[in-house]
Amino acid sequence: MTKTQRFLYFIGRNFVRFYALLMLKMDVLWESPLPDGPFLIAANHPSTSDPFYIMTPFRRPVRIMMIESPFLIPVFGRLLREAGHIAVCPRDKQAALEAACRELFSGHPVAIFPEGDTSPRTGGHLPPRTGAARLALMTGVPVVPVGIYLRRHRCTTIRSKTIGRPTVGFWHLRGPYGMTIGQPLKFSGDAENKEHIHSIAETIMESIARLASTSQARVEG
Asked: Rounded CA gap, 140 and 38, in Å?
């Protein structure tokens, strides 16, 4: 991690932490210590805000994999790239996986949202995509599942044409935000075996869903 990346990352994370302190009721529970070395954070995605909030509990810098839209915003997109985050382009998802592999092999934690998009507004989760499972098998790093809960009906819908086409975001700007960080999961096997990959993707998502329910029980308790 270069000095510039480290500076931009910590500026961004401290800004988000300060915002969370003022506007959110963050409720974070750790079920287990983090593993040594690199690891893959896999979380559900109930709001557009999650890629920014996900880095707040972790002391080490985390590379966030997120849809490319924020990276297309002038200035802000460049700051995201300079801070080391990874754009996931729908036309070339393999490039994002390769970039994430490089970061993990370099010893940096990476965060991914297996649903690939924000969760349904009515609740529940989208079927998992295979990126997290592939990364786990390709690199051998443990997967740290994270379950997020927020009151989805209170998200603010923001429509924008900043990147030259209409986009819609569901932003959680204030209120309770529960996060449960689970025990690391280890996987092995053939990274080209589609059946095995899908099985692992389902296992990761099941763990995330359990943790999200734990977060909900605390927030709504």
From this structure: 10
3-state secondary structure of 154: helix
Strands (E), the chain: 24-30, 40-43, 63-67, 86-88, 110-112, 143-149, 156-160, 167-171, 175-181
**87 SS3 class:** strand
- Dihedral sign for Cα 95, 35, 191, 193, please: negative
User: Quick one: how far is CA 98 from the chain centroid?
Assistant: 17
Phi–psi pair at 108, nearest 5 degrees: -100, 135
pLDDT by residue (tens digit) across 74-132?
888 899 998 899 999 988 889 999 999 999 999 999 999 999 999 999 999 999 999 99
Any idea what the CATH number is for the domain that residue 215 is in?
3.40.1130
Write out the residue range of the structural domain in which residue 113 sits. 3-220
- Residue 123 Ramachandran class (φ > 0 left, ψ -120 to 50 alpha, else beta): left
Q: What does pTM read for this prediction?
A: 0.94
Q: How many domains does the chain fold into?
A: 1
C-alpha neighbours within 13 Å on the C-beta side of residue 56: 25
